[in-house]
Design a protein that fits this description.
Chain lengths: 339, 324
């Protein structure tokens, strides 16, 4: 791996690992959204960002790499697979913090409070799982959009129009966004995935987070797998930064490009996931602890989440089903009851 | 039990029925993970003809301490300060009016918030039991009997969140808990912060202490460096007790309370306008409250923008500490 760093030398508590491939424009935005001059209430010395870029014809420019802040370290590597798993494993080795944030898809922009509240959440419990709700930029989920060129143009225009890199403006990303397919019912429903999540580095290692079986393009459903693996521990509370978000930028990636092939591709991913979970994979049914503030643009999404959550609660109560089934089962297991 | 981390001070006077319920909601049996939280409850009762009965006092959990004191004033401020002196924990919770029952996650999430930020103010939103705020529902015949029936209609001892189903928004927080709240009847802060504001100001000698609660909340909330949290999924639930602000002569008293409060703050008193960090889980019974709070806050954002006002002036540091 080449290392045209800069390296700050000191060892922060928190490392955020970002994997990118063939998405220079989007990855540059994501990195910007992780910088300390965009993130609110944190200093560069509070965390580091480790960027791993798998080589392609659409790489970050040398100029941009050289201009990165000292707490952002950049590496590029050749990848002999279409999966990011090897990059994830190698990147993990480079993370010096004992707290870890992971962005497997480098196209995920984040809001300005993500790092501040993630750091706060690490104090909530010794071993937390911290998730951020996921959105797609645009009013329609990106795999449903037929004209990719039009979407790319609209995306560029929107980002420019809100001047998103200026401090609080990052929350305006909510104004042109919809819930991602994995969390289409909002963030008070069980989470299927989080595209930016945080946990202890050791916890990630313990669950074999960079599981080499996930060799499908883009890693297939590895993100879903990791969230559930981490979440299925009774001693690891799920903390949701509900007033924050990650926003997938369209880049012609694995699950958002080519709508005609979307269903087949997602089916392949799900088949692998169910195989690994003995046909028992589900969204994580654990009651989240909500942490954070709610800026103006998030309220529409909060109210939508309330509506769907209420419907779900009503349905489950009518069926006499536990509202948070994984909490219920983990609690039984802790008492030695095998279901 | 290890060293006490949180001391909760509950002040009461002439409300034995209500206190029986309140104290149950403070017990380790009722509070989520209550046995894992090193806390104590300091009960300070100003004596009356309706004191806590001996059987209740004898059955209190081991982490509860009961003090009965004679008081000639109609104000609880001396009782509050007495309670502050008895507290042994480094972090304090204050309930000026013992008629407030709690939801089951208050202590758990307060304790967790302390882990995240020791130098913080943590508030719990206020509700009134009954179909309306009690000074209004009393006019329609709501009384202690009705309230007992209402409480008996839900299994609140096993699911305290059911209290939300029989409660109404309180005038202290008419726009929910995401917009600025005027008052909290259960709030937490470090003992050092209570010390820094001088405890309960003994000049608040009006019945019930007048607006002492609002005064203390703003005093604490404007301490430099203190972070501000709200347990949005929890609540305190005021039980009817013919107390100072829940029935007749309310408007006259309220005017006196307000006048006194204004005297204490140079430029006039304003409630605390800080952006709360929300902590907690949201039980099904609370989702309506969350949505309503969100709708109100959305309107506040729009209104502030239209008027050119700061949404959170106390956070922005635009409001100088105007306390006299």
């Amino acid at each position: 791996m080449d290392t045209p760093v800069p390296d700050s030398g000191s060892s922060p508590q928190l490392s955020i690992l970002v994997i990118g491939y063939q998405m220079a424009e989007q990855l540059a935005n994501t990195i910007k959204s992780l910088s300390h001059d965009y993130q609110i209430g944190v200093h560069a010395t509070d965390y580091e960002v480790v960027v791993i870029e798998n080589r392609s014809e659409d790489m970050l420019s040398q100029k941009l790499v050289e201009s990165l802040p000292t707490n952002i370290r950049y590496y590029q590597r050749d990848n002999d697979s279409s999966s990011p798993v090897a990059a994830l494993a190698e990147g993990l080795e480079l993370c010096r913090g004992h707290q870890l944030g992971v962005i497997i898809d480098g196209a995920q922009l984040v809001t300005p409070g993500v790092i501040r509240f993630a750091k706060m959440a690490f104090k909530y419990a010794d071993d937390p799982l911290i998730a951020v709700p996921g959105y797609h930029l645009g009013h329609k989920m990106q795999h449903e959009v037929e004209d990719a060129g039009e979407l790319l143009t609209a995306q560029r225009e929107f980002l420019e129009s809100i001047n998103w890199t200026e401090s609080d403006n990052g929350y305006r990303l909510f104004n042109w966004a919809c819930f991602s397919p994995a969390n289409r019912n909002g963030f008070l429903h069980p989470l299927m995935e989080s595209n930016v999540f945080f946990c202890l580095k050791q916890s990630f290692i313990d669950i074999d987070g960079a599981n080499a079986r996930f060799q499908l393009p883009g890693g297939g459903a590895i993100n879903l797998h990791i969230l559930r693996k981490l979440g299925m521990s009774a001693t690891r509370p799920l903390i949701l930064l509900a007033g924050e978000g990650t926003f997938h930028q369209y880049h012609g990636g694995v699950t958002t490009a080519n709508p005609a092939e979307y269903e087949a591709r997602v089916n392949t991913f799900n088949e692998q996931l169910q195989e690994i979970w003995d046909m028992n994979f589900k969204a994580l049914r654990r009651e989240p602890v909500i942490l954070g503030q709610f800026p103006e643009p998030v309220h529409a999404h909060l109210q939508a989440s309330c509506t769907t959550a209420q419907r779900r609660f009503q349905r489950l109560r009518e069926g006499n089903t536990p509202l948070w089934e994984d909490d219920f089962n983990l609690s039984l297991a802790a008492k030695g009851v095998v279901k | 039990m290890s060293t006490i981390e949180i001391s909760i001070i509950v002040v009461c006077h002439d409300m034995s029925r209500q206190m029986r319920n309140t104290l149950f909601t403070l017990s380790p049996e009722y509070q989520r993970a209550g046995n894992e939280i090193p806390y104590e409850v300091i009960i300070v009762e100003n004596a009356s003809d309706n004191n806590l009965p001996a059987d209740l006092i004898e059955s209190l959990p081991a982490n509860f301490k009961y003090f009965r004191r004679e008081e000639t004033s109609v104000s609880p401020v001396a009782a509050i300060n007495f309670g502050l002196e008895q507290a042994t924990g480094p972090w304090l919770g204050l309930m000026v009016d013992g008629a407030h029952m709690l939801s089951p996650g208050v202590l758990h999430f307060a304790s967790k918030t302390r882990c995240m930020s020791e130098y913080s103010l943590v508030t719990v939103p206020v509700y009134h039991l009954g179909p309306q705020e009690q000074h209004e529902s009393a006019a329609d015949g709501y009384d202690e009997g009705r309230e007992s029936e209402l409480l008996d209609s839900i299994d609140w001892r096993h699911n305290g969140y059911a209290l939300f189903d029989i409660a109404s928004w309180c005038g202290a927080n008419p726009r929910g808990f995401l917009a600025p709240i005027i008052e909290s009847n259960c709030f937490f802060a470090p003992a050092s912060a209570f010390n820094d504001i001088g405890g309960a100001d003994s000049r608040f000698q009006l019945p019930g202490g007048g607006a002492i609660n609002l005064h203390m909340l703003r005093k604490l909330g404007t301490l430099p460096g203190l972070e501000y949290f709200c347990l949005g999924g929890e609540g305190t639930f005021h039980q009817y007790h013919g107390g100072v602000t829940s029935n007749v002569s309310r408007s006259q008293l309220q005017a006196k309370f307000d006048a006194q409060l204004q005297e204490f703050w140079r430029g006039g008193y304003r409630h605390l306008e800080r952006n709360p960090v929300i902590v907690g889980s949201f039980a099904p019974e609370t989702i309506d409250r969350l949505r309503y709070s969100s709708q109100c806050m959305e309107r506040r954002f729009a209104n502030c923008r239209k008027q050119g006002w700061q949404v959170w002036p106390d956070d922005a540091g635009l409001t100088q500490d105007n306390q006299s």
